């Protein structure tokens, strides 16, 4: 069995598909990352502008 250097095993995923083995492999070296909250946050300038626009649309 030769590695095809597909890169699936090098990604930080809990499971991946190995082409050389032809099966799904559970990654024992998997390290979960912290989830980053992206989106609107109170106090953010863009958040306030978006909130005011959407509020005006609802009132009209």
TrEMBL record:
This is Uncharacterized protein. It comes from Caloranaerobacter azorensis H53214. It comes from the Bacteria.
């Amino acid at each position: 069995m030769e590695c095809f250097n597909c890169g699936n095993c090098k990604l930080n995923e809990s499971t991946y598909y190995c082409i050389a083995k032809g099966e799904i492999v559970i990654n024992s070296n998997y390290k979960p990352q912290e989830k980053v909250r992206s989106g609107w946050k109170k106090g953010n300038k863009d958040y306030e502008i978006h909130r005011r626009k959407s509020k005006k649309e609802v009132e009209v």
